[in-house]
Amino acid sequence: MLNRRRFFAAVPTGLALLNASSRALWAMDAPSDSVALFQVHADQHSGVIPQNVMGLSYESTQLGEPEFFSLSNKVLVKFLHTLSPHGCLRLGGNTSEFTYFKPDASVNSPAWSPQPTQPKTLTPITLEALHNLRRFLDVTGWNCIYGLNLGTGTPERAAEEAFAVTQILGSKLEYLQMGNEPNNYIRYRLRPSTWNEKYYLAEWLSFARAIVQRVPTACLAGPDMGADAAWFNLFASDAVAEMKPHIVAITDHFYAEGPPTSPESTMHNLLLNPKKIDHEISITATAGHHANLPFRMTEVNSCYSGGKPGVSNTLGSALWAGDLTLKLVASGFCGINFHGGSARQIRASLGGQMPGDTVAKSEADDSYYTPIAGSSTAGYSARPIFYGMLLAARMAGFNLIAGSFAQPQAALTAYSALSANGKVMQIAIFNKGSQPADMLLSPGKPFHVASAIRLTGPELEATSGIQFGGAPIASDGTWNPHSVESLHRSATGQFRITMPAGSAALVTLHQA
Q1: DSSP-H helix ranges across 141-214
Q2: Of 210, 317, 440, 443, which has fewest CB within 10 angstroms of its CB?
Q3: pLDDT tens digits for range 2-55
Q4: 468: closest CA among 477, 486, 458, 481?
C-alpha cells in the first residue's frame, strides 16, 4: 500500500495523470448559479483527526476461533493494514454476553439455561485466543477495545478475564467495556421487565469495582449502547463521578436503518435523512462534554440485524460510511468502529436468523453490512463500504478545519483538513444524490496545485465494480491507486471539480 506521503510524492509537482473518464475542467474564475461553492475556513481548527479514527467491530464469539485474529490469517492482516496503519479493533456485540473466560482445560462452562432466542452454549475465550490476538494487533499496528460479559457474567469472572486481557494485550488495549447495549437487555431476555438505567448503573459499578480491585490500572468505557439520554446522562454523571480515574471514554452505537425487512430501510433514507444521526450526536456529545471525556462510536452500520441486501452492500453504503465518519469527527467524536463479520457470527448474535436473508430470498455466507467479507479458507474481499472507510481514513493525522457551502446542499457534503505544517490541505467530497454537481473549492489560503482521487462505481445500487483512485482492493488486501486527476486553479486561487452522481473524491492541495 502507498501511504499518503509516498503516494503524492509519486505525482510530479504540478502534474498528474488525468483519469481518462474525468470530466472537462473549466477556466471560469467565478461560480455560476449552478456551481456549488465550498469555502474552507482555514483559520478555524477543531482538533487533530486521531490516527486510530477508523476501526472495525466484531462479535466477541469470533475469539472462539483462535486462529481468526492471528498471524496465520495473513490476508486479513493486510486488509486491516490497508484500511489504516493505526486502526482500532473492537470486540463486543450481542454475543459478548454469551462468552466465558477459559484460562485452562480445567475450567468448565458456567451453568447455562438459554432462552429460545439465545445461543445454546456459551463460547469459551482461551489464553491461546488472547495471545494470538496480541500478535495480530502487533503486526497490524492496531489497538483493541475489549468487551466483557455483563449480561450472563459475574463481577468475579469479569475481573479474572480483565486481568488476563490487560496482561496479554498490554499497550495494545485501549479500554475494557462491560455489557453490550444494556438498554436492550429486556428484549434480549437477559433481565426482567423492571430493568432500567438505575439497575444497570448499580450492576455496572459492581463489575467496575471488582475489575479495578484486580487491575488497579484498568481503563474502562461505556455505556456501549445507542444514545438514550436517560442512560447516557446517568452514566456520564454517576458512573464517572465514582470511577473517573478509570473511565476514559463515552461509547455509543448507531444503526441508520432497520430492520432489514422494513420498507422504510431504503437507500434514500440512508443517504439523505440526517435526523437520526443528528439526534444521536446531540445525546452522545452532551454526555461526553458533561463527563469531560472523549466519545467514540464503537459499533455502527447502515442497517441493524446484519444489514439489508441492496442497501448495506452497495456503493451507496460506501458514500454513507465515508460521510458518516467525517461528520462524526467534525462533531467531536474521536473515532468510529464499523460492525461486521460472518453471517454465522451475526446469526448467533440474533438468535439464529439474519432478517436480510428474507429480503434476499437466500442465505448469505457473510453479513450484508460487513466491510470485509469471506474467510481464511474461502478468501477475503472488500465490500463497497470498505472503500468509503478507506477514503475517510486517509485524513487521519490531519487537523480538521471548518468549511461551508455558500448555499445549502441537499446531497453534497464536504470536509476539510490541514497538515500539521499547513502545507497540505485535504477536502473530502461526497455526492450522495442522483445528479452530477459542479463544485468550486475555495481553500482560504494560497495553494497552487490540487489533485483528486475518486471513489466511483456503476451506480448507487452497485455491489461490485467499485474503485478508489482507479483501483479496486485486491483479493490479497492490497490497494494500489493509479488514477490521479489534476484540478484547474483559477486566477482567484480556487479549484474546480465535477462530482458525478453517486460518487466521492479526496482532493489534496499543495502549496507548491
Answers
A1: 155-169, 197-214
A2: 210
A3: 333 333 333 332 323 223 333 333 333 444 568 999 999 999 998 999 999 999
A4: 481
Same domain? 169 vs 30: no
**End-of-domain residue from the set 347, 368, 393:** 393
Half-sphere exposure of 270 (CA within 13 A, CB side): 35
Q: Output the nine-digit C-alpha cell for 478.
A: 492490497
Strands 99-102 and 123-126: parallel
Give dist(CA 425, CA 346) in Å, integer: 40
Helical segments of 54-146, H only: 74-83, 127-140
How many domains, in total, are found in the chain? Answer: 2
Whether a cis peptide bond, with omega within 30° of 0, leads into 260 is no
Domain of 66: which CATH number?
Answer: 3.20.20.80
Which of 393, 417, 452 is the endpoint of a domain?
393
User: Is there a single domain that holds both residue 293 and residue 434?
Assistant: no
Amino acid letter, residue 371: P
Q: Which domain holds residue 235?
A: 54-393
pTM above 0.85, yes or no: yes
Cell 447455562: give the residue: 112
The pairing of strands 379-382 and 372-375 is: antiparallel
